[in-house]
Design a protein that fits this description.
By secondary structure, the chain is α/β, with parallel strands linked by helices. Helices cover 43% and strands 15% of the residues. It has one domain: Vaccinia Virus protein VP39 (Rossmann fold, 3-Layer(aba) Sandwich), CATH 3.40.50.150. Helix 1 crosses helix 2, helix 1 packs across helix 3 and helix 3 packs across helix 10.
Length: 290
C-alpha cells in the first residue's frame, strides 16, 4: 500500500491519468459557476486521483485546459446530437468519463465506452446502482492490439447508422504512425460520420513534457502533436468542420490560465493567429466529419 504523500514513489501510468483528469472535473463541479456538473468525478478519481493532483508539478495551475476541453466537447456533442441526429457515440479510451450519467442524453442514443478491461471493471463497480440517461454499452479492449481493434470496429458498425467517435485525451499518447493508422481505420467505418478529438501543438507537448515527464511512467509519455494540425487527419479521409482553440475558448468560458493577460501582452500575434485558424499547429478541440 502506498503511504500518504508518497505518490512520487510510483510512476503515473496512463490508466492513472484518467483519475488525475477526473479530479479536474471534480474541482470544476465544486464551483458555484461551474461550466458542468460531474457528481461522480471525485468518486471515480478516488484517493489515487487526489494524490496525483496534489503532487503533480503545477497540477492545479494546469487545470484550465482540461476543464475547457471537457466543456467544449460537451457543447460539440450536444450540438451534434441535436443537429446531425446521430444515433450512437463511441468513446475510445473513455477512462472515467461520466457523460452518459451527468448529461441529459436521448434515451434512444447508444453510448459505447471502450477502455482497458481493468478500467472498465473499476468504473462499472464505482457506478453500480447509478442509471445512465441513454443506452450504455461498455467494451473492454486494448486499443494497442491491432486484432482487438479490428474486431471492435467491426462490432461498432452494428450499433447504428450515424455515429460519432470521441477520443478525448487519447491521441497525444500515440506515435504519429499509430495516430494515422487509427484515423484511417475510423474513416473506414462508414457509420462513423463525425469525430471529436483534442489536439496539441508541438510547443505545448514539449512544455507538458518538461513539467510532468519525471512523474509520468512510460505508458503515459506524451508523443503526438502534429505540426500540420488538422491537415494530418484530412489525409486519412476526415474534413475539419470546426476548430475550438483552447486559448480562445478559455477566455470565452472565463477559465484562462493564471496571469493570462501577460501572455496576451507578450504574444498578441498568437491570439490573432488563433482567430479562424484552419491549418498549422493547433491546441484545442477538433470537430471532424467524413
Amino acid at each position: 500500500m502506498m503511504r500518504q504523500g508518497m505518490s512520487t514513489e510510483r510512476d503515473v501510468t496512463v490508466a492513472d491519468t484518467a483519475k488525475w483528469v477526473a479530479m479536474y472535473r471534480a474541482i470544476e463541479s465544486d464551483r458555484s459557476d461551474a461550466l458542468f456538473r460531474d457528481p461522480f468525478a471525485r468518486r471515480l478519481a478516488g484517493a489515487r486521483g487526489a494524490d496525483i493532483l496534489e503532487h503533480m508539478p503545477k497540477g492545479r495551475a494546469f487545470a484550465w485546459p482540461m476543464i475547457v476541453r471537457t466543456a467544449v466537447i460537451d457543447e460539440l456533442l450536444t450540438r451534434a446530437i441535436r443537429d446531425e441526429h446521430i444515433d450512437f457515440v463511441v468513446n475510445l479510451a473513455a477512462g472515467l468519463d461520466a457523460r452518459p450519467y451527468r448529461m441529459q442524453l436521448p434515451p434512444t442514443l447508444r453510448w459505447v465506452e471502450v477502455d482497458y478491461p481493468s478500467t472498465i471493471e473499476e468504473k462499472t463497480e464505482a457506478l453500480a446502482g447509478e442509471t445512465p440517461s441513454c443506452d450504455l454499452v461498455r467494451i473492454p479492449a486494448d486499443l494497442a492490439d491491432t486484432k482487438a481493434r479490428a474486431a471492435l470496429l467491426e462490432r461498432v458498425a452494428t450499433f447504428g447508422s450515424k455515429g460519432l467517435v470521441i477520443t478525448e485525451g487519447l491521441m497525444i499518447y500515440l506515435t504519429r504512425e499509430q495516430a494515422g493508422e487509427l484515423a484511417r481505420e475510423l474513416a473506414a467505418v462508414s457509420q462513423l460520420q463525425f469525430w471529436i478529438l483534442d489536439i496539441a501543438a508541438p510547443f505545448i507537448l514539449k512544455m507538458m513534457a518538461r513539467t510532468w515527464s519525471k512523474r509520468l511512467g512510460t505508458s503515459a509519455t506524451f508523443r503526438f502533436a502534429p505540426e500540420e494540425g488538422a491537415e494530418f487527419y484530412e489525409r486519412s479521409g476526415w474534413k475539419l468542420v470546426e476548430y475550438r482553440s483552447a486559448w480562445l475558448e478559455a477566455r470565452r468560458l472565463k477559465r484562462e490560465m493564471p496571469m493570462a493577460w501577460i501572455w496576451r501582452l507578450l504574444y498578441p500575434r498568437y491570439t490573432r493567429q488563433e482567430q479562424g485558424r484552419r491549418s498549422g499547429p493547433m491546441t484545442g478541440v477538433l470537430f471532424l466529419s467524413r
